[in-house]
Amino acid sequence: MTASSHSTRALSFNAAAAQYAANRPSYPPALFDTIEELAARPLNGARVADIGAGTGIATALLHARGADVIAVEPGDGMAAQFHRANPGIPLVRGTGNALPLATASVDFLTYAQAWHWTDPDHSVPETLRVLRPGGALALWWNTYALDVPWIAAQSKRIQHAFGTDPVVETNGASTRAADPSGRLDFARRTVRWSRRVPIDTHLANIGSHSIFLVQSDGSRTAFLTEEKRHLLSLFPHGTVEETYDVDLLVAVHA
């Protein structure tokens, strides 16, 4: 992916912030249990910065776990949606490449679906600067469970229509991809979960991904219309079960 296309995809979410907030999946309690296990410290009472917070899906869950959380988000549209949904949680503008946070100021840095928008040459040193000794960096991505036949088939249709999404392909695919410098020692876990949603919610969810948002309105609408027809033939009751594997990487700062 070129730098310009990467930037275009990163900025594409701002115009679709409400769609993103209404339809994107959340994260299961087991994810946060696993983060605490790998970090060997609780979220409750910890100072947490949630980077690339978007509309605040993960931030709100961290807050509910008892964390003293601050959000960092660069996008105007996402930040506006965040404030509407989470008026009591502070948000500052910035990115993981230049964190607007003091040195050794947080116990956890979290990136939910967001680390791949950073440049590790900058975000890794920033992580090491901002974390307190013994603090933890937690990165995670909801990835579709491709061992579920209908999900695998849909993924192939998307790839055929729009090509392979390099962001989705790399996500947390390896600790080497997350930190090419090798300065962070990641532990990795997978947490499976699922949710049952109407087909329209599912389509609005996949339509909020950057690979769709950068398409023309006509291309996007045509694909989603045909996809709805296909899904209704498989699930005439109008509901699908989305199955996810949360790909989690946690590194503790010595």
Write a structural description.
With 254 residues, the chain is α/β, with parallel strands linked by helices. It has a domain at 3-143 and 169-194 and 243-252: Rossmann fold. Helices cover 44% and strands 24% of the residues. It contains twelve helices and seven strands. It has helices at residues 3-12, 17-23, 29-39, 57-64, 76-85, 120-130, 149-162, 166-170, 175-178, 199-207, 210-213, 217-234, and strands at residues 47-51, 68-72, 91-92, 106-112, 131-144, 186-198, 239-252. A seven-stranded mixed beta sheet has the order 3-2-1-4-5-7-6. Helix 2 packs across helix 10 and helix 10 (199-207) runs antiparallel to helix 12. The longest helix has 18 residues, at 217-234.
In brief, what are we looking at here?
The chain is 44% helix and 24% strand.
Q: Which keywords apply here?
A:
single chain; alpha/beta; Rossmann fold; seven-stranded mixed β-sheet; disordered N terminus
Topology:
Blueprint (H helix, E strand, L loop, with lengths): L2 H10 L4 H7 L5 H11 L7 E5 L5 H8 L3 E5 L3 H10 L5 E2 L13 E7 L7 H11 E14 L4 H14 L3 H5 L4 H4 L7 E13 H9 L2 H4 L3 H18 L4 E14 L2
Parallel strand pairs: 1-2, 1-4, 2-3, 4-5
Antiparallel strand pairs: 5-7, 6-7
